[in-house]
TrEMBL record:
Cofactor(s) in the UniProt record: FMN; Fe cation
GO molecular function: electron transfer activity; FMN binding; metal ion binding; oxidoreductase activity
Protein name from the UniProt record: Flavodoxin/nitric oxide synthase
Species per Swiss-Prot/TrEMBL record: Paludibacter propionicigenes (strain DSM 17365 / JCM 13257 / WB4)
SUPFAM superfamilies for this protein: Flavoproteins, Metallo-hydrolase/oxidoreductase
Family listed: In the N-terminal section; belongs to the zinc metallo-hydrolase group 3 family.
PANTHER family with a match to the protein in the record: DIFLAVIN FLAVOPROTEIN A 2-RELATED
Amino acid sequence: MFKNQQIAKDIYYVGVNDRQKHKFENMIPLPNGVSYNAYLIVDEKTALVDTVDISFGDIFIDKIQSQLQGKPLDYLIINHMEPDHSGSIRLIRKYYPDMVIVGNNKTLSMVDGYYGVTDNMLEIKDGQILSLGSHKLEFHFTPMVHWPETMMTYDKTEKVLFSGDAFGAFGTLDGAVMDTDLNVDKYWDEMARYYSNIVGKYGNPIQKALKKLTPLELNLICSTHGPVWKEHITEVVDMYDQFSRYHGKDGVVIIYGSMYGNTELMAETVAQGVAEAGVKNIIIHNVSKSDPSVIIRDVFKYKGLIVGSPTYSNELYPEVESLLRKIEIRGVKNRVFGCFGSFTWASAAVKRLTTFVETMKWQSAEITVDEKQGLKTDKYEACLELGRQVAELMKNHVDEPEHCV
């Protein structure tokens, strides 16, 4: 029934689109949906690379059977065990009971742990090659990109890298799967949002993986989410290199919470100071409106960060507190920071923000602004100066020379 799209000699796309799920991992909004990508190699031996979310298992099986046309499925290669990619393992085994599951030691342990499958397993080692006939598959272990079992599979014959979650993006594939056949403009921000929220904590392992993959000649990168990359391989790899080194572009992200508009007015004034210093990339987020995944994306994209919060129950505004925790968990480095706050009878927010930047070990502006009740002339001028200081720090900031490929 299905006519699967061929992406290289003997290699077919058998993934699916999810336009139903509201939130990825029940946290991250999917306004443009998401794809679960899997690939089928039909050679003397046949191999399926990764599976899809079990909610699409029936369609997935139909796609595989349409391509195999009665041939056996010899191997299932598992690059990553998250259930959106491994969820159909038990279902496929029912249709192809003699299929050999290929993975590393940690992968095969997880197959047992998640699905209770323990038979017909082939444990492979880093650098090992599996021959399908004309296609020679070479396995490259890439632990903590972004789970401990993750690996990538390289087709030495067609120079195709099956990269697991690496180089993936949110967004469905609408009619086509190759970047040569798609308008990829919409995927760049979604790739940045995917990286920063899903993979962002693991900069050092990503740098190690990039170094390991550097000698490989790549005609295609086949991720488990988003487009198959051909024309834009250089841009995709460069994005991962920049983000995993926490290298931000020139620009300032201003994040604030506000109940009655006083802290919001301070944020607007700080932004004016940043602009007066000649910065054009200024992104302002109200934490009560902007989704955290979008804010975190922009924190990864830009070098400057200014945070403002009212004091709330002698703490930070709860949404600001939650967001800072997300940033801290991801271990973002190489940022310049400024902060401001407001209070009615007891000041606490600026103290908490100062503690945060000390924890992150970022370069910080000398001035902080803490206003009691409504914004007054002296603090208005101080907000302008805070914006100018962060802008100048950003322009002169040099990244720490760590994690470089």
